[in-house]
From TrEMBL:
Pfam families: Polysacc_synt. Coiled coil: none annotated. This is Oligosaccharide flippase family protein. The keyword ATP-binding does not apply. The chain crosses the membrane at residues 12-33, 48-71, 83-108, 120-138, 206-231, 243-263, 283-305, 326-345, 357-379, 391-410, 416-437, 449-468, 488-511. Keywords: Cell membrane, Membrane, Transmembrane, Transmembrane helix.
């Protein structure tokens, strides 16, 4: 069992190279975004990211997982599987992009962004390119080309980074110099003066972020051109029907799942306590969620490696014991991440601009929510491996209903706090339903006692840290942003580090026990 676990850990680490870089770069831009953009403008960025996340699930049709299933199926030609999937995804996304270009004006007006029609077109372009390359990335995962996957993702990330740097730190000053040379104000400049003004504004706004993503998608697609040409677009209609019969339920299930993750972003527009400032509340919430990035990062890394890993070992003897063991290691490591973020939250919170720090309190809730989401992914393999993907729809719809209910009932009074607890409650419900159904249709011998111990140790360490902080490190408003002097903050972090090491030692001792 050691070798499969080492393979999974190794591929998780390689996929994590690019994923870590993406999240780190994104994280490093948070201080700039939360200082160069208003809370309202950052809220708009968050809203557009939610649209991209939800629409991408629809436009890929669930065929990423479908490709894994059929490419590993005896008697199927992997090339035909991926080529058929690519043909279907390309056709649907080309039609979607054409519609976005044709109706960008009405869509922008309906969303309250008249004058930003370009951003609607950028949205369509991002989705078109991301969905096509999703199939190409899936093939790399299938072929265990984790390093090439990571390199291409890294290039994409660095391109987005460079675009952001140029737009935020060079372009506004360039426009100011051009305006001065022409004897105009910046507002009077046109594309005849600076050609990029056809694409972005002369002053920083949310359009910079969206345009940078589009540029990175274009570069990524160009890297894949040789792979794209080799597909030759062979198309097997019968194979597509069988793939869609398997994949569409996953897509339908993923849609409420992703909608569940982002539904609160849409509901801010209608239910936030200060409806006139809902974009500001959304911006503050999203900035706080960014501080939980390391947990969602690990889950994404794990998912990239685990999904093909689980499928390819499905026929092996005692594989269910392996799946159960993976869950134990996963939960224990998530506990370590939780404590690492929460016990160092004082210096971490300084990453955010002053106006965005009001939402720091939701960070523990979001971290715990992400742990449950990762456990949900582990447990949900039962319906993917058994082919009973239809149950995924009911599980995720139940989670979506919980999210909607909590946000609609409590957001008018509690704003983004309702969003955080909505995530937590939703993932609890989905995890419970998944475990219950999995026991019935595809029982896996999870040792829930050990998993519970990870949560117990995590909670005890967190509780002890809070008690020590209250007794030894009372908040002093005059001591700086952290409420402590430099020496006291150092002592506090040393004690917290000892607690984290204690948790790691105890967890490792429990995991090493075979009985």
């Amino acid at each position: 069992m050691a070798n499969p676990l080492k393979q999974l850990a190794g591929e998780t680490a390689i996929y994590g190279l690019s994923t870590i870089l993406a999240r780190i770069v994104n994280f490093l831009f948070v201080p700039f975004y939360t200082r160069l953009l208003t809370t309202e403008s950052y809220g708009v960025v968050t809203e557009f990211m939610a649209y991209i996340a939800v629409l991408q699930v629809v436009l890929v049709l669930g065929l990423e997982t479908g490709c894994f299933r059929f490419a590993n199926k005896e008697g199927e030609d992997p090339h035909s599987v991926y080529s058929t999937a690519m043909t279907a995804v390309f056709g649907i996304n080309a039609a979607f992009l054409a519609a976005m270009i044709a109706f960008c004006g009405p869509i922008a007006s309906a969303l309250g962004y008249a004058g930003y029609e370009n951003c609607i077109i950028y949205l369509g372009g991002i989705l078109f390119l991301d969905c096509i390359t999703a199939i190409l990335f899936a093939r790399l995962r299938q072929e265990h080309k984790a390093l090439r996957f990571a390199v291409i993702k890294t290039v994409k990330i660095l391109t987005e980074t460079a675009s952001n740097l140029v737009l935020f730190f060079w372009f506004p000053s360039y426009c100011a110099r051009a305006a001065s040379a022409l004897g105009k104000s910046v507002a009077e400049l046109s594309s005849a003066d600076v050609w990029l003004l056809d694409l972005v504004s002369a002053t920083p706004d949310f359009g910079y972020v969206i345009f940078s993503i589009l540029v990175s998608c274009v570069v990524c697609a160009l890297i894949f051109v040789p792979d794209f040409i080799r597909f030759a677009f062979s198309f097997d209609r019968r194979l597509l029907h069988r793939m869609l019969a398997y994949s569409l339920p996953l897509m339908v299930a993923s849609l409420p799942g992703v909608a569940n993750d982002f539904l609160d972003r849409f509901l801010f527009r209608y239910f936030d306590t200060g409806a006139e400032n809902w974009r500001s509340s959304l911006g503050i919430f999203q900035a706080a969620v960014k501080l939980s990035v390391i947990m969602s990062l690990f889950i994404q890394m794990f998912r990239f490696a685990a999904e093909p890993f689980f499928f390819q070992r499905a026929a092996e003897k005692d594989v269910k014991v392996l799946y159960a063991r993976v869950m134990e290691y996963f939960t224990a490591f998530c506990g370590l991440i939780f404590l690492g973020v929460i016990l160092y939250i004082d210096p971490i919170s300084l990453i955010l601009g002053r106006d965005f720090r009001a939402g720091i309190g939701v960070v523990p809730i979001m971290l715990l929510s992400y742990i449950l989401l990762g456990m949900h992914f582990n447990v949900s393999m039962w319906y993917k491996l058994s082919g009973k993907t239809g149950y995924a729809v009911y599980i995720t719809l139940a989670g979506l209903a919980v999210t909607a209910l909590i946000n609609i009932l409590f957001m008018p009074a509690y704003s983004y706090w309702a969003s955080a607890f909505g995530h937590l409650a939703s993932y609890v419900v989905m995890l419970f339903l998944n475990v219950w159904l999995g026991r019935k249709f595809y029982p896996i011998p999870y040792r829930w006692g050990r998993i519970f111990l990870s949560f117990l140790f995590m909670g005890l360490v967190y509780g002890v840290s809070m008690l020590l902080d209250r007794v030894m490190f009372p908040y002093d408003p005059g001591a700086g942003p952290s409420g402590l002097s430099g020496s006291m903050l150092a002592v506090k972090l040393i004690l917290h580090t000892v607690l984290i090491i204690f948790y790691a030692f105890i967890s490792w001792a429990v995991l090493r026990r075979r009985s």
